[in-house]
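Case study 2.
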Amino acid sequence: MHLSGCVSLEELPASVLDLSKLETLNVSGCSSLKWDNLEDYVNGIPELSTRHSDILPNLKFVDLTITLIQIIPSFITHSPVLELDCADCTKLTKFEVIPSMEILDLTYSLIEEVVELEKMKKLKHLNLSQNKHLILISGDFPESGSLEMINLESYTKLSRLLNSIGNLAHLTSLDLSCTALEELPSSIGDLTRLSELLFVGKLLPRTFPYTANAWRGFERRWPLPAREPRGSCSKAARSRLSGGESRRAAGGSR
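Prediction:
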């Protein structure tokens, strides 16, 4: 179902919840859309309120970008969603983990915390960039996690990384640009597939593990970056480790 750009759309009919074969819900740019009627409908029917998994059982792709959503509806969080795009949801304040997710974009939201990371075992792309209000990322990255890309650009309150980041054996891209990060956990040396580490607009952390096994391949093909004067995000040269052609961690998760 593609309703992108319907700025006058205020609500979806409750019959949407009966679309058992619905796989895609795209309401991006529907800036007037409210979800209260659907939540009230679900909560008003005991059979539905206790069996969320029976609602939209095949929903895989949800695009809520540029909407005024504040809380992701329960009938979405209990669906087997693979991709959830909430970029530019500037009113979004709360996020509930969806274990089935592979791609999550929370760029430019009001989210203050992301918890229970260990439950997102299938997650491949995580974009939390431009989140000025994000205070806490808690839990542990899952053992043998599937994450391939993490973008924390301009997560200005980030002062440390979870040591469990070393669990992410498949991680290839990590963007830490314009963060408050001053040190890296020793476990980052376990990220043997990491091919891109971005520090736009800041010095490399003082505890950067120059001798970690993970960087040996980079040293042969690309010199380790020198420390550069601190500058603004928009003007500073890119400090990076790259094992191949220049690549930029995408601003979006797609």
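Helices lie at 36-43, 46-49, 74-77, 216-221.
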